[in-house]
Amino acid sequence: MKNQKSFNGLFVGLVTLDLIYLAESPPKNNQKLVADDYTVAAGGPVTNAAVTFSHLSNNAKIYGVVGSHPMTQLIKGDLANYQVEIIDLNPTTENPPPVSSIIVSAPSGERAVISINAVKGSLPNFFLPKKFGRVPVKQRDCTTAISPDILQDIDIVLIDGHQMAIGCAISQKAKAENIPVVIDGGSWKPGFEKLLPFADYAICSANFYPPNCHTSEEVFAYLNQVGIPHIAITHGEKPIQYLSQNKINLIDVPKIQAADTLGAGDVFHGAFCHHVLHNTFIASLEKSAKIAALSCQSFGTRRWMEESVISEQ
Protein backbone atom coordinates (compact mmCIF):
# COMPACT_ATOMS: atom_id res chain seq x y z
CA MET A 1 0.00 0.00 0.00
CA LYS A 2 0.98 3.61 -0.46
CA ASN A 3 2.35 5.45 2.55
CA GLN A 4 0.58 8.65 1.51
CA LYS A 5 -2.68 9.17 3.41
CA SER A 6 -5.50 10.60 1.35
CA PHE A 7 -8.77 10.92 3.31
CA ASN A 8 -9.90 11.28 6.91
CA GLY A 9 -12.71 9.15 8.30
CA LEU A 10 -14.57 9.22 11.62
CA PHE A 11 -16.00 5.89 12.78
CA VAL A 12 -18.62 6.12 15.54
CA GLY A 13 -19.73 3.06 17.48
CA LEU A 14 -18.71 -0.16 19.16
CA VAL A 15 -15.21 -1.12 20.30
CA THR A 16 -14.70 -4.66 21.59
CA LEU A 17 -11.93 -7.12 22.26
CA ASP A 18 -12.23 -10.17 20.00
CA LEU A 19 -10.84 -13.57 20.99
CA ILE A 20 -10.92 -15.61 17.79
CA TYR A 21 -10.35 -19.36 17.58
CA LEU A 22 -10.06 -21.65 14.58
CA ALA A 23 -11.50 -25.14 15.17
CA GLU A 24 -13.33 -27.92 13.38
CA SER A 25 -16.62 -26.71 14.87
CA PRO A 26 -18.02 -24.99 17.95
CA PRO A 27 -17.98 -27.21 21.05
CA LYS A 28 -21.04 -29.16 22.07
CA ASN A 29 -22.33 -29.29 25.65
CA ASN A 30 -19.62 -30.47 28.07
CA GLN A 31 -17.13 -30.80 25.23
CA LYS A 32 -13.60 -29.37 25.27
CA LEU A 33 -11.83 -28.58 22.03
CA VAL A 34 -8.24 -27.69 21.20
CA ALA A 35 -8.12 -24.86 18.68
CA ASP A 36 -6.01 -25.12 15.54
CA ASP A 37 -5.17 -21.42 15.71
CA TYR A 38 -6.18 -18.27 17.52
CA THR A 39 -5.76 -14.51 17.38
CA VAL A 40 -6.70 -11.48 19.48
CA ALA A 41 -7.76 -8.17 17.97
CA ALA A 42 -9.85 -5.09 18.55
CA GLY A 43 -13.34 -5.67 17.19
CA GLY A 44 -16.73 -4.15 16.58
CA PRO A 45 -18.36 -3.02 13.32
CA VAL A 46 -16.83 0.45 13.02
CA THR A 47 -13.54 -0.72 14.55
CA ASN A 48 -12.85 -3.28 11.84
CA ALA A 49 -14.12 -0.79 9.27
CA ALA A 50 -11.71 1.86 10.55
CA VAL A 51 -8.78 -0.57 10.32
CA THR A 52 -9.76 -1.37 6.72
CA PHE A 53 -10.10 2.33 5.86
CA SER A 54 -6.64 3.00 7.30
CA HIS A 55 -5.19 0.03 5.42
CA LEU A 56 -6.45 1.61 2.19
CA SER A 57 -4.13 4.60 2.72
CA ASN A 58 -6.40 6.82 4.78
CA ASN A 59 -6.51 8.30 8.28
CA ALA A 60 -9.09 6.72 10.58
CA LYS A 61 -10.43 7.84 13.96
CA ILE A 62 -12.72 5.74 16.14
CA TYR A 63 -15.21 7.56 18.38
CA GLY A 64 -16.30 5.09 21.06
CA VAL A 65 -15.89 3.85 24.61
CA VAL A 66 -12.61 2.11 25.48
CA GLY A 67 -11.72 3.03 29.07
CA SER A 68 -8.73 2.19 31.27
CA HIS A 69 -9.22 -1.47 32.20
CA PRO A 70 -5.97 -3.48 31.72
CA MET A 71 -7.56 -5.45 28.86
CA THR A 72 -7.93 -2.25 26.83
CA GLN A 73 -4.17 -2.28 26.25
CA LEU A 74 -4.75 -5.12 23.81
CA ILE A 75 -7.29 -2.98 21.95
CA LYS A 76 -5.07 0.10 21.94
CA GLY A 77 -2.04 -1.86 20.84
CA ASP A 78 -3.85 -3.48 17.93
CA LEU A 79 -5.30 -0.20 16.69
CA ALA A 80 -1.97 1.59 17.06
CA ASN A 81 -0.40 -1.13 14.92
CA TYR A 82 -2.84 -0.23 12.14
CA GLN A 83 -2.48 3.52 12.70
CA VAL A 84 -6.05 4.03 13.88
CA GLU A 85 -6.63 6.82 16.38
CA ILE A 86 -9.03 6.38 19.30
CA ILE A 87 -11.19 9.20 20.65
CA ASP A 88 -12.35 7.67 23.94
CA LEU A 89 -15.80 8.80 25.05
CA ASN A 90 -15.27 7.48 28.58
CA PRO A 91 -11.50 7.23 29.20
CA THR A 92 -11.73 6.97 33.00
CA THR A 93 -14.07 3.99 33.23
CA GLU A 94 -12.43 0.93 34.74
CA ASN A 95 -15.08 -1.44 33.43
CA PRO A 96 -13.71 -4.17 31.17
CA PRO A 97 -14.42 -3.65 27.47
CA PRO A 98 -17.05 -5.78 25.76
CA VAL A 99 -15.40 -9.09 24.88
CA SER A 100 -16.46 -11.31 22.00
CA SER A 101 -15.45 -14.97 21.81
CA ILE A 102 -15.60 -16.30 18.27
CA ILE A 103 -15.11 -19.81 16.96
CA VAL A 104 -14.45 -20.11 13.24
CA SER A 105 -15.22 -23.52 11.75
CA ALA A 106 -12.25 -24.52 9.59
CA PRO A 107 -14.19 -26.55 6.98
CA SER A 108 -16.67 -23.77 6.09
CA GLY A 109 -15.26 -20.49 7.40
CA GLU A 110 -18.53 -19.86 9.24
CA ARG A 111 -18.34 -18.35 12.69
CA ALA A 112 -20.15 -18.66 15.99
CA VAL A 113 -20.05 -15.59 18.23
CA ILE A 114 -20.94 -14.92 21.84
CA SER A 115 -20.77 -11.31 22.97
CA ILE A 116 -22.44 -8.74 25.16
CA ASN A 117 -21.98 -6.21 22.35
CA ALA A 118 -22.43 -2.68 23.71
CA VAL A 119 -24.61 -3.60 26.70
CA LYS A 120 -21.83 -2.50 29.05
CA GLY A 121 -20.01 -0.30 26.56
CA SER A 122 -22.58 2.31 25.63
CA LEU A 123 -22.10 5.89 26.70
CA PRO A 124 -24.45 6.60 29.62
CA ASN A 125 -26.89 9.46 29.18
CA PHE A 126 -25.28 11.35 32.05
CA PHE A 127 -22.26 12.02 29.82
CA LEU A 128 -24.40 14.38 27.76
CA PRO A 129 -24.39 18.04 28.89
CA LYS A 130 -26.25 18.80 32.12
CA LYS A 131 -28.26 21.51 30.41
CA PHE A 132 -30.33 18.73 28.83
CA GLY A 133 -31.74 18.05 32.33
CA ARG A 134 -34.18 15.16 32.31
CA VAL A 135 -35.30 15.59 28.72
CA PRO A 136 -35.34 12.17 26.97
CA VAL A 137 -32.48 11.57 24.52
CA LYS A 138 -34.86 11.37 21.56
CA GLN A 139 -36.06 14.93 22.25
CA ARG A 140 -32.62 16.47 22.64
CA ASP A 141 -30.58 18.31 20.07
CA CYS A 142 -27.59 16.01 20.39
CA THR A 143 -25.34 18.28 18.30
CA THR A 144 -24.47 20.28 21.42
CA ALA A 145 -23.20 17.14 23.16
CA ILE A 146 -20.02 16.84 21.12
CA SER A 147 -16.85 18.82 20.57
CA PRO A 148 -17.43 21.61 18.04
CA ASP A 149 -14.30 20.62 16.12
CA ILE A 150 -14.92 16.85 16.06
CA LEU A 151 -15.49 16.93 12.30
CA GLN A 152 -12.58 19.20 11.46
CA ASP A 153 -10.85 17.86 8.32
CA ILE A 154 -13.14 14.79 8.29
CA ASP A 155 -14.15 13.60 4.81
CA ILE A 156 -16.62 10.83 5.69
CA VAL A 157 -18.42 9.42 8.75
CA LEU A 158 -19.50 5.83 9.46
CA ILE A 159 -22.00 5.11 12.26
CA ASP A 160 -23.05 1.65 13.46
CA GLY A 161 -25.75 2.70 15.96
CA HIS A 162 -24.10 1.30 19.08
CA GLN A 163 -23.58 4.80 20.52
CA MET A 164 -26.93 6.12 19.33
CA ALA A 165 -27.04 9.49 21.12
CA ILE A 166 -23.54 10.39 19.95
CA GLY A 167 -24.28 8.97 16.50
CA CYS A 168 -27.30 11.24 16.33
CA ALA A 169 -25.12 14.20 17.25
CA ILE A 170 -22.42 13.40 14.72
CA SER A 171 -24.87 12.73 11.89
CA GLN A 172 -26.72 16.02 12.43
CA LYS A 173 -23.48 17.97 12.49
CA ALA A 174 -22.07 16.15 9.47
CA LYS A 175 -25.24 16.83 7.50
CA ALA A 176 -24.97 20.54 8.30
CA GLU A 177 -21.35 20.54 7.13
CA ASN A 178 -22.01 18.50 3.94
CA ILE A 179 -19.89 15.57 5.11
CA PRO A 180 -21.24 12.24 3.83
CA VAL A 181 -22.67 9.90 6.47
CA VAL A 182 -22.66 6.12 5.98
CA ILE A 183 -24.89 3.92 8.13
CA ASP A 184 -23.79 0.38 8.98
CA GLY A 185 -27.18 -1.29 9.32
CA GLY A 186 -26.16 -4.59 10.89
CA SER A 187 -29.41 -4.89 12.83
CA TRP A 188 -32.17 -2.49 13.80
CA LYS A 189 -31.52 -0.57 17.02
CA PRO A 190 -33.88 1.80 18.85
CA GLY A 191 -33.06 5.37 17.88
CA PHE A 192 -32.13 4.62 14.27
CA GLU A 193 -35.36 6.34 13.23
CA LYS A 194 -33.88 9.63 14.51
CA LEU A 195 -30.49 9.11 12.87
CA LEU A 196 -31.40 7.76 9.43
CA PRO A 197 -32.76 11.05 7.97
CA PHE A 198 -29.23 12.47 8.17
CA ALA A 199 -27.63 9.57 6.27
CA ASP A 200 -26.36 9.71 2.70
CA TYR A 201 -25.65 5.98 2.41
CA ALA A 202 -27.29 3.03 4.15
CA ILE A 203 -25.37 -0.21 3.71
CA CYS A 204 -27.39 -2.86 5.52
CA SER A 205 -27.17 -6.55 6.22
CA ALA A 206 -29.94 -9.00 5.45
CA ASN A 207 -30.77 -8.91 9.18
CA PHE A 208 -31.61 -5.20 9.21
CA TYR A 209 -35.37 -4.81 9.59
CA PRO A 210 -36.89 -1.48 10.61
CA PRO A 211 -40.27 -1.59 12.40
CA ASN A 212 -42.99 -3.33 10.37
CA CYS A 213 -40.50 -4.43 7.71
CA HIS A 214 -40.23 -8.12 6.88
CA THR A 215 -38.74 -8.20 3.37
CA SER A 216 -35.93 -6.48 1.50
CA GLU A 217 -38.50 -4.60 -0.56
CA GLU A 218 -40.05 -3.18 2.60
CA VAL A 219 -36.63 -2.22 3.96
CA PHE A 220 -35.79 -0.36 0.74
CA ALA A 221 -39.17 1.40 0.86
CA TYR A 222 -38.67 2.44 4.50
CA LEU A 223 -35.16 3.82 3.96
CA ASN A 224 -36.16 5.53 0.72
CA GLN A 225 -39.09 7.19 2.46
CA VAL A 226 -36.89 8.71 5.17
CA GLY A 227 -34.83 10.30 2.40
CA ILE A 228 -31.65 8.22 2.13
CA PRO A 229 -30.49 8.60 -1.48
CA HIS A 230 -28.21 5.53 -1.67
CA ILE A 231 -29.26 2.17 -0.19
CA ALA A 232 -27.80 -1.33 -0.43
CA ILE A 233 -28.40 -4.65 1.32
CA THR A 234 -25.66 -7.27 1.46
CA HIS A 235 -26.45 -11.00 1.62
CA GLY A 236 -23.13 -12.68 2.36
CA GLU A 237 -22.07 -14.78 -0.61
CA LYS A 238 -25.29 -13.90 -2.46
CA PRO A 239 -25.65 -10.82 -4.73
CA ILE A 240 -25.88 -7.35 -3.21
CA GLN A 241 -29.21 -5.59 -3.66
CA TYR A 242 -29.25 -1.85 -4.26
CA LEU A 243 -31.92 0.68 -5.11
CA SER A 244 -31.56 2.77 -8.25
CA GLN A 245 -34.29 4.81 -9.92
CA ASN A 246 -36.90 3.14 -7.71
CA LYS A 247 -35.83 -0.30 -8.94
CA ILE A 248 -33.99 -2.97 -6.98
CA ASN A 249 -30.89 -4.17 -8.84
CA LEU A 250 -28.25 -6.82 -8.12
CA ILE A 251 -24.45 -6.89 -7.99
CA ASP A 252 -22.71 -10.26 -7.97
CA VAL A 253 -20.00 -10.84 -5.38
CA PRO A 254 -16.81 -12.84 -5.99
CA LYS A 255 -17.08 -16.61 -5.63
CA ILE A 256 -14.48 -17.83 -3.16
CA GLN A 257 -13.66 -20.66 -0.79
CA ALA A 258 -14.04 -18.87 2.54
CA ALA A 259 -11.54 -19.51 5.29
CA ASP A 260 -13.21 -17.11 7.74
CA THR A 261 -16.28 -14.90 7.24
CA LEU A 262 -15.81 -13.02 10.51
CA GLY A 263 -15.84 -9.25 10.01
CA ALA A 264 -16.50 -9.42 6.27
CA GLY A 265 -19.35 -6.94 6.56
CA ASP A 266 -17.19 -4.58 8.61
CA VAL A 267 -14.43 -4.77 6.01
CA PHE A 268 -17.03 -4.05 3.33
CA HIS A 269 -18.11 -0.88 5.15
CA GLY A 270 -14.55 0.34 5.64
CA ALA A 271 -13.73 -0.31 2.00
CA PHE A 272 -16.95 1.42 0.93
CA CYS A 273 -16.02 4.54 2.90
CA HIS A 274 -12.75 4.59 0.97
CA HIS A 275 -14.10 3.83 -2.48
CA VAL A 276 -17.15 6.10 -2.39
CA LEU A 277 -14.79 9.07 -2.03
CA HIS A 278 -13.22 8.03 -5.35
CA ASN A 279 -16.03 6.36 -7.29
CA THR A 280 -19.74 6.14 -7.99
CA PHE A 281 -22.07 4.36 -5.58
CA ILE A 282 -22.37 1.25 -7.74
CA ALA A 283 -18.63 1.05 -8.46
CA SER A 284 -17.95 1.44 -4.74
CA LEU A 285 -20.22 -1.50 -3.94
CA GLU A 286 -18.44 -3.65 -6.53
CA LYS A 287 -14.95 -2.75 -5.32
CA SER A 288 -15.88 -3.16 -1.67
CA ALA A 289 -17.30 -6.62 -2.35
CA LYS A 290 -13.95 -7.67 -3.80
CA ILE A 291 -12.08 -6.51 -0.70
CA ALA A 292 -14.59 -8.18 1.64
CA ALA A 293 -14.21 -11.42 -0.33
CA LEU A 294 -10.44 -11.11 -0.06
CA SER A 295 -10.69 -10.75 3.72
CA CYS A 296 -12.67 -14.01 3.92
CA GLN A 297 -9.77 -15.98 2.51
CA SER A 298 -7.60 -15.59 5.62
CA PHE A 299 -8.19 -16.50 9.26
CA GLY A 300 -9.07 -13.64 11.59
CA THR A 301 -9.80 -10.01 10.84
CA ARG A 302 -6.24 -8.82 10.17
CA ARG A 303 -4.18 -11.41 8.34
CA TRP A 304 -5.68 -10.62 4.94
CA MET A 305 -4.01 -7.21 5.16
CA GLU A 306 -0.64 -8.81 5.79
CA GLU A 307 -1.03 -11.36 2.99
CA SER A 308 -2.35 -9.16 0.17
CA VAL A 309 -1.61 -5.98 -1.70
CA ILE A 310 -4.44 -3.72 -2.87
CA SER A 311 -3.42 -1.01 -5.31
CA GLU A 312 -6.60 0.04 -7.12
CA GLN A 313 -8.83 2.87 -6.00
Explain this structure to me?
The chain is built from 8 helices and 13 strands. Helix 4 (192-195) links the parallel strand 9 (181-185) and strand 10. The chain has one domain (8-307): UDP-N-acetylmuramoyl-L-alanine:D-glutamate ligase (3-Layer(aba) Sandwich). Residues 124-144 have low confidence and may be disordered. 44% of the residues are buried. The strands form 2 sheets. The protein has a 9-stranded mixed β-sheet with strand order 5-4-1-8-9-10-11-12-13, sandwiched between helices. It is an alpha/beta fold and 313 residues long. Helix 1 (45-55) packs across helix 6 (264-275).
Element order, helices and strands?
EEEHEHEEEEHEHEHEEEHHH
Question: Biggest β-sheet, characterized?
Answer: 9 strands, mixed
The CATH homologous superfamily? Ribokinase
Residue windows where pLDDT falls under 50 for at least 5 positions? 124-144
Shape descriptor reads globular
Give the name of the CATH architecture: 3-Layer(aba) Sandwich
- Strand order, largest beta sheet: 5-4-1-8-9-10-11-12-13
Compute the number of strand runs. Answer: 13
**CATH fold name, please?**
UDP-N-acetylmuramoyl-L-alanine:D-glutamate ligase
Helix content percent band: 25-40%
Beta-strand fraction estimate: 15-25%
CATH class: Alpha Beta
